[in-house]
């Protein structure tokens, strides 16, 4: 299991244990973490599972496809350098102990 | 845990006139209710629909006996897992929000303005036939990459296919029309396909022709037909419902006119309030339980997002149109793997272009007194006439 923390917009933290291979979005939904809507349940169509990752982590995460890159421009909260759609990011060892921040609105 | 209760005193005509009282009744009965006249188990609670959409192995879209496969061929809408993913990924480049904004929005804007030019001087019109239907049809012709197709033609093809898909009583006239529409669409594809193969462009036909996963001619035909059938009446109906919601709530219209961004919110709220697709099917793959109800393998479910979008567990005063809702998450575009591929096209076409341009150009737009709009349908629902007037 990989342990990491979701950080809500108000700063509160939700620690989770996740299975390698699941998407970050699925981990959030399975753990009832507020702040991830995931309207399309992982089809990369709705842009409602937006999350922020530490920039130095980005190169180690699942690579971003053009489709996700386009959708991120239309997320309800403005995109930042660490933005990803969490349905497209797979849990891997590099997330151990990391913080995944959630935006104000999806 | 109980088997689905049975509802036998509701007619299809009642559902088509106003499905919401029946939806409320079913929602209070059980997680799934067999409706005799519709010959299907209806699922109406928001949370149950989320459960269904998160478990597509138990609740599949693949449906060997589906009339849709017979009428249109086997499209992505009736597939699951990898086969669905491949065909879905193939069309996505045409539907990306960035592509929609840069490439399609200027086209949609010019279509809307041209249409309004034609009736602006009249002072009154039925927005169904003069604006919403041609707006949705002409936009779809461009999106698909068709050429030399009249909007009236794609509109009747679309209707004929949808009637064919709902033709459970096997009326030979309806089957015949659907066959003719299908043949006409094959011709329209053959007319342009070579050009799209040659030159890559943002149209859906081009995306399919250049997809990483090579499509057979049958796959292209089936998926184009599903988009002709399912990409026309929804934006048409959403244009009309958004206009209706705003005209019936003048204080909200004033708000939107003061802050044009709110037209997008009005569109989203209209899709919740009167969902253009009220119901879509799923098939139970093995004996299971949904909420408080036992289901059997091969049970057919009607997923009533039009009902879930009025679930009091999720929305306060769900029957009223209110663009200021804070809880705005709705199921009007579905959920899960088949979440509407055309969401961003619809948002742009309706909420950012057709509706705001209409209100901007037609001063003091209002409903015609004594000539009420008529709404119809439960599987698909929208105004079938929206007579309006404005100051000349
Ligand atoms: C307000 C307008 C619209 C609404 C409310 C709407 C609603 C929906 C819904 C509820 C579904 C899910 C059906 C299911 O799961 O069986 C769907 C799927 C789909 N929609 Fe839309 N739609 C709209 C506009 C459009 C437009 C304009 C297009 C294309 C030009 C389009 C293309 C599609 C496609 C291709 C699918 C199938 C996706 C798949 O199976 O993966 N839609 N739509």
TrEMBL record, chain A:
UniProt keyword terms in alphabetical order: 2Fe-2S, Iron, Iron-sulfur, Metal-binding
Cofactor(s) listed in the protein's UniProt record: [2Fe-2S] cluster
Record carries keyword Metal-binding: yes
GO molecular function, one term: electron transfer activity
GO terms under biological process: P450-containing electron transport chain
Assigned protein family: Belongs to the adrenodoxin/putidaredoxin family.
Protein name: Rhodocoxin
Organism, scientific name: Roseibium album
From TrEMBL, chain B:
GO terms, molecular function: heme binding; iron ion binding; monooxygenase activity; oxidoreductase activity, acting on paired donors, with incorporation or reduction of molecular oxygen
EC numbers: 1.14.-.-
InterPro entries from the UniProt entry: Cyt_P450 (IPR001128), Cyt_P450_B (IPR002397), Cyt_P450_CS (IPR017972), Cyt_P450_sf (IPR036396)
Top-tier EC class: oxidoreductase
Cofactor field: heme
A Pfam family recorded for this sequence: p450
Cell cycle recorded as keyword: no
Record keywords, A-Z: Heme, Iron, Metal-binding, Monooxygenase, Oxidoreductase
Family: Belongs to the cytochrome P450 family.
Full protein name: Cytochrome P450-pinF2, plant-inducible
Species this chain originates from: Roseibium album
């Amino acid at each position: 299991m990989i342990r990491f923390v979701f950080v809500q917009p108000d700063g509160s933290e939700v620690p989770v244990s996740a299975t390698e291979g699941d998407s970050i979005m699925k981990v959030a939904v399975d753990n009832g973490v507020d702040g991830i809507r995931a309207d399309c349940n992982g089809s990369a169509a709705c842009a409602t599972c937006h999350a922020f990752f530490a920039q130095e982590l980005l190169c180690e995460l699942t690579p971003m496809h053009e489709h996700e890159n386009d959708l991120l421009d239309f997320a309800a909260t403005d995109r930042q350098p660490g933005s990803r759609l969490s349905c497209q990011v797979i849990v891997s060892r590099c997330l151990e102990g990391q913080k995944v921040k959630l935006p104000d609105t999806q | 845990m109980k088997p689905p209760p049975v509802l036998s005193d509701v007619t299809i005509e009642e559902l088509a006139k106003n499905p919401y009282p029946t939806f409320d009744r079913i929602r209070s009965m059980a997680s799934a209710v067999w409706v005799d006249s519709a010959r299907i188990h209806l699922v109406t609670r928001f949370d149950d629909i989320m459960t269904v959409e998160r478990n597509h192995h138990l609740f599949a879209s693949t449906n060997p006996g589906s009339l849709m496969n017979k009428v249109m061929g086997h499209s992505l809408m009736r597939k699951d897992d990898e086969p669905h993913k491949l065909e879905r990924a193939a069309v996505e480049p045409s539907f990306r929000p960035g592509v929609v904004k840069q490439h399609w929005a200027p086209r949609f804007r010019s279509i809307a303005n041209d249409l309004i030019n034609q009736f602006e001087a009249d002072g009154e019109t039925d927005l169904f036939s003069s604006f919403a239907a041609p707006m949705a049809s002409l936009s779809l012709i461009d999106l698909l990459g068709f050429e030399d197709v009249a909007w009236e033609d794609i509109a009747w093809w679309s209707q004929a296919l949808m009637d064919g898909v709902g033709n459970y009583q096997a009326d030979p006239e309806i089957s015949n029309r659907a066959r003719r529409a299908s043949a006409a669409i094959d011709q329209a594809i053959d007319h342009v396909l070579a050009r799209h193969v040659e030159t890559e462009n943002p149209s859906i036909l081009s995306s399919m022709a250049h997809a990483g996963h090579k499509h057979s001619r049958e796959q292209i035909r089936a998926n184009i037909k599903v988009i002709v059938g399912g990409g026309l009446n929804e934006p048409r109906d959403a244009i009309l419902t958004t206009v209706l919601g705003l005209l019936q709530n003048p204080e909200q219209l004033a708000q939107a006119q003061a802050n044009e961004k709110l037209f997008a919110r009005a569109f989203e709220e209209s899709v919740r309030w009167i969902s253009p697709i009220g119901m879509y099917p799923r098939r139970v793959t093995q004996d299971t339980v949904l909420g408080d109800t036992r289901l059997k393998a091969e049970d057919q479910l009607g997923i009533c997002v039009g009902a879930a979008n009025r679930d009091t567990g999720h929305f306060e005063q769900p029957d009223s149109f209110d663009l200021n809702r804070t809880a705005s998450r709705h199921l009007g575009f579905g959920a899960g793997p088949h979440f509407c591929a055309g969401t961003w096209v619809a948002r742009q076409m309706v909420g950012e272009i057709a509706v705001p341009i209409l209100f901007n150009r037609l001063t003091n737009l209002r409903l015609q007194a004594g000539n009420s709009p008529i709404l119809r349908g439960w599987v698909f629902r929208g105004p079938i006439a929206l007579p309006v007037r404005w100051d000349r």
